[in-house]
Amino acid sequence: MPTLHLKKQQLINGYRRFDPTRGMEYTLDLQLEVVNQKGHSRSITKRVHLVRPLSLIEIIPMPYVTEATRVHIIIPLTAEDRSFVNHFLEVFASNAFETSENAILTFLFIYDPEEAQHVNHNDIFADVKNQINVYERKYPTVKIPWISVKTEIPSQIKFMDIISKKHPVDTLFFLAHINTNINTEFLNRCRMNSINNWQVFFPIHFQEYNPDVAYHNQPRPATVDLVKDAGHFDRRSFDEACFYNSDYMATRSRMVADVQENEDILESLDIYDIFVKYSGLHVFRAVEPALHQQYRYQSCNPKLSEDVYHRCVQSNMEGLGSRSQLAMLLFEQEQGNST
Q: Would the keyword RNA-binding be found if you checked this record's keyword annotation (predicted)?
């Protein structure tokens, strides 16, 4: 076989792109000098594709899973979330109802004690229930169940205790948020990354920035791309989770002794905390490009634990805009004040 020697002469073009699931990807157009065994040479142009991975690649043996599992999507709703339901249902209908996605959507209506007292003659979720009826009539094969709970402090664990008892042990849950845009690509990753008696999945969604900051004095785009000026991966948020009911039930059973000593931990911990502390399972947390959330200011409940409350506050602050966008707004404000 003839031997060829390649020598780089110059870089003609270069392109790089950060893929949050792989690392930094490069596409390079190189001008190379090719020299054969006889010493003859000529110049050629070659395109190469390279990747610099995020970390060392390690092959981990995993149990077999499929993309055929039905996903039960749980959406908790408080009074302040009602205005987002219409958009959520529109997106979900096009991504799931119209494609016959193997998923069941369930709403969890959260009433505080005062709201619960007036539910018979002034139900704060009456309009949402009417919207559900509209979609069930539009899609005759679709049923959207809902569950009502009354509580002073909206605790993830207390909600899941109620939901868990209403579903079989082999149910795959996706605990989501009303601002989460759910699609088939993500649901398949939820199925593949949640492994019964082995692993739970906590995706890190892409959080869009406040459009008043990100697109200051600019027209807002019809669709938001996954770029650094449009938003960021919100590592402070642990609202979304994929896990099997049997794993949740086993984890809760290991909490019994601690709960008897201090019942307040049901309100101070969230689902992520209990899986990390009590489950013994792999807790897989990774950025998820297919999971987007629209911008909204979150109401942080000071009655929850200090850690959960602090994460919520930090998420609000970091979700306003990038540092350069915020700096530009401050600069414009300072210029305006000085004139």
A: no
User: Does the pLDDT at position 85 exceed 70?
Assistant: yes
Span 90-110, average pLDDT: 92
**pLDDT score recorded for residue 338:** 64
Question: What pairs with residue 27 in β-bridges?
Answer: 15, 49
- In a 3-state reduction of DSSP, which class is residue 182? coil
15 forms beta bridges with: 27
Decide if pLDDT at 227 tops 90: no
Tell me the pTM: 0.78
Strand segments (E) across the chain = 5-19, 23-35, 41-53, 71-77, 103-111, 146-150, 172-175, 180-181, 199-208, 231-233, 241-244, 282-293
- Kindly report the number of other CB atoms within 10 A of residue 52's CB atom: 11
Furthest-apart CA pair in the chain: how many Å?
94
Q: In what order do the strands lie in the sheet with 41-53?
A: 5-19, 23-35, 41-53
